Give the backbone structure.
Amino acid sequence: MVTIYIDGKPYQVDAGQNLLHICLSMGINLPYFCWHPAMGSVGACRQCAVKQFRDENDTRGRLVMACMTPAVEGLRISVQDPQAVEFRASIIEWLMENHPHDCPVCDEGGECHLQDMTVMTGHTYRHYRWKKRTFRNQNLGPFINHEMNRCIQCYRCVRFYRGFAGGRDFDAFSNHNTVYFGRKTDGVLESEFSGNLVEVCPTGVFTDKTFRKHYTRKWDLQTAPSVCVNCSLGCNTTPGERYGQLRRIRNRYNFNVNGYFLCDRGRYGYEFVNSDRRIRQARLRRNREAAFESVAPDEGLQRIKEIVKKSGRTIGIGSPRASLESNFALRTLVGPEHFFSGATVKDHELVTEAIKILRDIPSSMASLHEVETSDAALVLGEDVNNVAPMAAYALRQSVRCKPQAISQKLKISDWDDTAAREAVQDQKGPLYLATIADTRLDDMATRTFHASPQEIARLGFAVAHQISPTAPQPENLDSAALELSKMIAQDLKDAESPVVVSGCSLEEKSILYAAANVVQALRSIGKPARLFLTLPESNSLGLELLEPGSLNQAFAIAREDNVEAAIILENDLYRRSNPALLEAFFKSIPSVIVLDSLDNPTAQKADVLLPAATFAESDGTLVNNESRAQRYFQVFVPQDDIKESWVWLRAIGDALGQEEPGARKTFDGLIADMVKELPFLAPVQEISPASGFRIAGAKIPRQPHRYSGRTSMHANVSVHEPQPPQDPDSPLSFSMEGFLAEPPIEQPPASLIPEFWAPGWNSIQSLNKFQEEVSGPLIGGDPGKRIILPPDPEQAAYFDEIPEPFASRAGELLLAPLYAIYGSEELSIHTPGEAQLTPPLRLEINPRDAQQFNLTGETVLQVSVDSQVFELPLHISASIPEGTAGMICGLPEMPYVALPAWGKVTPKPVNSSTENPG
Amino acid sequence: MIISALISVWNVFKHLFKKRVTIQYPEERPYLAPRWRGRIILSRDPNGEERCVACYLCAVACPVDCISLQATEDEHGRRYPEWFRINFSRCIFCGLCEEACPTYAIQLTPDFEMCEYDRQNLVYEKEDLLIDGQGKYHGYNFYRVAGVAIGGKDKGESENEDAPIDLRSLLP
């Protein structure tokens, strides 16, 4: 800590930190463009000039760039100095020379960093009288709109896209005052983090194209804190609603989880909420052949009451994409012994195993932030770019940690981005990727290892054994894998905070065991190693924590025990199980009750269908891959008869006359019940204040204080304004009235801030007013609490279930699951842009196998696996290991098949005469 | 005391011979200046196209929140309101919407005769608001000065704009 003087006032600050970072952290407004809290300084825009004085007698001083000046003991600067103020105003005037007269039609307007900074510097009048420079725009795909005229050449976009997100297809072109940011030619931006350009760009060059289709200003969006439902990482988001429609998703900073960025699947995967396929009314039918008829909610409940009362037994099938509370409500309704996991049988087993592993080493679970700051990483099995994209982003940053030693030796601060990168050049920290096929992270990897799931697990076991000889050793490891395992072990041992990233995506238990062994081995030699496991879905962990039975057990009970009714919660079982099994299951159950938000094949089997709310229309808790329970709040009240699943389930309980203490119908009551029954879930109660929480006697408004159209938006229906909806479940209100936050002086707890906004800071950059320090935790602690907590139990034994070496079979290929960022996830595919980028169905085969099976380029293949036969076009891919084949799972046209599995592959017979058995 | 009362009586008496201020409305029409703040209209630009670009500034400026709209775009990227609604039963005719409007689209007119028996009829939609002319402000066309391209106006064709940069050029 050193003492510096800003405008004569002493401040205690971190030595060596740059002055811009310090000023913003201290709450002093200083304009900037090229600096970004996550990307450091480059000193390009000259906007953050302050005056530095030699000592207290120096009255002349000199202008320096705050972002490039480190703090040293006794430093004296002035932000308010008239010369510095004038300098900053003139800089922005120069930057604005060519800025078009676009604000009224610019999507950034109202949340524009350039607007904010212009107001902050006091620049009001443009002296420039000559012609403005113009550019042509590019079509950058379905997510990003390009309007190059607005550019102020701060270089943030290209620094983020190439330097941080690792994209290759975007750059700065041309020269002098005609620098152009874009692609070589029009086309979809390849990076899965391209959506962050919208937030990184300080002005309106890059704007959200999906938002543009139903554009609303930031001040008109009703927002609430939320959590992304499109993968297991639980990135924090801020969804915005207007006129009953979800309009967009923005990043919501959480120091431990996603920081400043989101992936495109999460950012754009919201449009299913507005889908035409939403179930909006309760529907009934007399029998499975009859058509559905929409009924009033009470009639639906009455029918359920009749069904459940009449029947001896009701089973409940939960869902890994429904909230903890909804799953618990179902569990309570049907009883724990009749509550089954709605995940696939394999996912159920794997996640249960993952929980066991995590419970063995709670203190070594990595958060996403810890992955980002680790200096060596081993990825076992996961194609993180497609399964949990933000983990790929974190790994990309992690390779920059170790080489920091080089720049630090040259006394270059870590925030001095260009200098540090120049010093480091192409040096990268250790990152080892063991995956089925190539991934989009391969360019960062020290070494890649493409092999079958078993071989990946064996490599992991070998690494663990190399680190600590007490760990079991795989037999008959081939020499290449042995060499690699030695190299990996050495790098992990040399690291200060190594991380092992693994997960469930290859559906192979032994990979989890191998990852656990590596971490255990590193811990046994005193390394603070961490484990990061990705899971299949947003609440996979939460669901399995409730200890449900497996889906197969549900099928068995249905077959044998004359179950009368099944309640299926937010789950399309056709994505989870073999269609033949499901047909038998539905046939064996007289009454099927389905609660879901989107029409799907399971909903088509229902006898009673209840419209369930999506994440944006409900309150709930999701438990992410590191067991962090995070609350998402209802953003808006849905129209029609849509209700939160737990509300439906409570109502069914009421109709059945289950013992109901009054408090139980509220959200708080439900959580209290849950904690009472499962005490280890106690942190769920603490992640956010209860619904009775008030600040100065007022609720926290979801609408900004300048929300418009209140007396007009419903006037077409009736000129008499309706009462705003009440929210009994949270301290937030559906109103613009209530506690007016005045950051950083007074603001709600971090878990209850509907939207980051501060006076003078309308853009996402207002975040600095809500953080303890720039890019540090939010004031009062980041929302979310881990459920699996230290202390660690005694050191668990090593796993020794080492799989046999992979042996290819004659005439068969091991079909392994591949994933697509757009397509493998159930909900985000309903965004038209994501559907457009979904890869086609195909079977990826190694060229040598293709040769052996006599397969060539354009063939359509018949794949028979697990008594199902599919037709898939052939795709020859050199990175798929011999003897295996890759199949992208989860695509909407593809029926469920449990992978990995051995399958027979033959070319589709064009006609009987040319049949060519494989 | 009495004197002051008498003065008042005298002053009142004098008014018998003054010209009357009140007029026989509605037979007689009052003069209303062009800047009088009455019924709100949406105007068109000199080309006869809607001036409103759906920027939401009138809505946010409105102190009683009686304006709501939804932006949309035509196939060439010209933004306009899909619908535009003013609830005149709430409007206080303060004119802040007109001040906020960056395109001279929304204007207050010297017309106040908009009484209704049914409040619901005071809700005006875009088709009720949009007039065929330019209103008080002639000649202004926002899209001629803005940098965005729309149908019939490509990049570099706005006022005070250079032709688009040729990125392949190596000339300094």
Chain B touches chain A through 50 residues (CB under 8 Å).
